[in-house]
Amino acid sequence: MSLASWISNFVASITDTFGYVLPLTVLYLLYLIIRYPNRLVGTHSDRAYVWTVPGYPLIGNLVDVARRGTKKQFDHFLYLANSCPPGKPNFSWTVPPVGRIVFLNHPAYIEHIQKTNFNNYVKGDFLKNAFGDFIGTTGIFVTDGEEWKRSRKMASRVFSVGQFRRVVTTVVHEELHSVNGVLDAMTGEAGQGTIALPNLFFRYTLSSFAKMAFGADIQCLKPDPACLQEDVPFATAFDSAQEHINNRFTKPGWQLWEKYTPGGKQMVAWTKVMRDFARKIIDDRLMLLDLKEKARGEEMQDRGIAMGQSEAALNEKSQRAGMAPGDGNDKDLLGLFMDMTRDPEELLDVVLNFIIAGRDTTAQSLSWFFIELFAHPEHVQPILDEIALLFPSSATDTSTPNYLAYDDLRQLPYMQACLAESIRLHPPVPKNSKSALQDDVIVPLNSAGTSTTPPPVKVFKGEMVAWSDWVLARLPTVWGEDCAEYKPSRFLLADESGPGGWRFNSNLGPWKFHAFNGGPRLCLGMTLAYFEAMAVLTLILPKWDVKWAAPHEGQVCLGKRPPPAGRSAEEEQRDGWEWPPNYKSSLTHPCEDYSATFVRR
């Protein structure tokens, strides 16, 4: 029998058994494989100036994304960015259920998305679904349009200069008193002691932000080292939930998996801890608000002086809770949002959304800053010299703590430059994405002033655009050939009239130095972040020499140490040491836990 006859008989037997359904299905499948040879079915084809990371027919990059997960995620993004072929400076991949994600590798693209055509790019349902059980669906970080504008406008009132002078400075100084007490007691008679530094910073920012934004004293930081051993269930749940949600982005169909896996049950438990914590803050405030309203009610009008005394007592209690009587500008964040709604669920979203901004970002920036300082100790003395200009006694008397005033923030340009350079390399929000509402062509303007202006990129309706500030910080096309080096001089300008002959370089703009976002979504808390961080550095550095703790001193980041002078990175790797500590999987950018030794100066 000839081959042609055999094929004819085979097809005939198939059609006799299954009719034409199976052959047509196979033909259709072959057609789809030919049409989508390396990408997810239903996605648009390749386009100019974007390299499609090779994937499998019909499922795209699903296998690679799921296999890699989030471990060393940003290193992989950087590898792909550096692997883009000539003429295609961006890359993309396709995964269900979102379709194509276009990764953009230049600040000029971000300017178009976050400013030029701002209304066309939204958070989208995919992000809202992933975040929903964590920070809700009505908070400022997951909403768009009018709902977002209303929240933004309300929150902006809290970050006014007046609020900084009346409320923020007072609260930060209270928390600095606790930090100073912890470190004084820890170093004690021996003159030195070791501490898990990120833990201290997370407590510092959580405690201060809870007081500033919600009028709540959550007792997680006290002037006693014993407080660092006390569990903070909210913080544990908050960090665990962030890692869990970050993993959702590499697990298509996570909604189904979480119904039947331990991770899903853990997420439910973490969510309950977080929401119970936030709900107590809200319930306490609502109860106090009800008491104030009753004190003003008709039932007390006949009590004369007694009524006045009652209301005065409530006003005093309210002020301690951030509910200042009179001018609405004196209200804290929660008080302002309570003017909009008394719905506990909406207020829960408010509290949780702002805690992720108020706690994580500054604490992580401080943790990464000290890692850079351990590796580059030559910057410590210039910072100390600058502090001494502002606090002359700190050079000789280290027993008195320095409390930085808000109005003196600009008097520390060298410190701010060192901090900003650390934030550049370790941005608190290292990745972001948006969904396109309509077809668009991203035409870069290059307001960032980089050496090159990238080509335009086509984006189709429903596609996602993404970028990583962590990656952008390490691209020579953005920051030059020395982009991966820690160089605070990027943020300094010579100025004879400035402290120490310097002025902080704020001319880089929000697109090149994008750690605080840009456009309408520029970070409201940027000044707060700098003030909180620089205030605690002004306290710590003149009093203590801070070093990477040795293993015998209780280093919790085992297998890690700064490379000694004269030894290469290859030698360190050979001997089993690594530097620097890695970042954790999270929505934000925490580093691995580590210990630092404080030695009294």
Characteristic key phrases:
three-stranded antiparallel β-sheet; six-stranded mixed β-sheet; 601 residues; 13 strands; Cytochrome p450; metal-binding; alpha+beta
SSE diagram, text form:
Elements: H1 3-18, H2 21-35, E1 50-52, H3 62-68, H4 73-83, E2 90-95, E3 99-103, H5 107-116, E4 121-122, H6 124-135, H7 145-156, H8 161-187, E5 192-196, H9 197-214, H10 233-248, H11 254-260, H12 262-295, H13 305-320, H14 333-338, H15 344-375, H16 380-390, H17 413-425, E6 432-436, E7 440-442, E8 457-459, E9 464-467, H18 469-472, H19 476-479, E10 492-494, E11 502-504, H20 509-512, H21 526-543, E12 544-548, H22 569-574, E13 595-600
Helix pairs in contact: 8-9, 8-21, 9-15, 10-12, 11-12, 12-13, 12-15, 15-17, 15-21
How many domains in all?
Answer: 1
Strand fraction band? 5-15%
Radius of gyration: 28 Å
- In whole angstroms, how far apart are the ends? 96 Å
**Which CATH architecture is right?**
Orthogonal Bundle
Name given to the CATH homologous superfamily = Cytochrome P450
Largest sheet: 6 strands, mixed
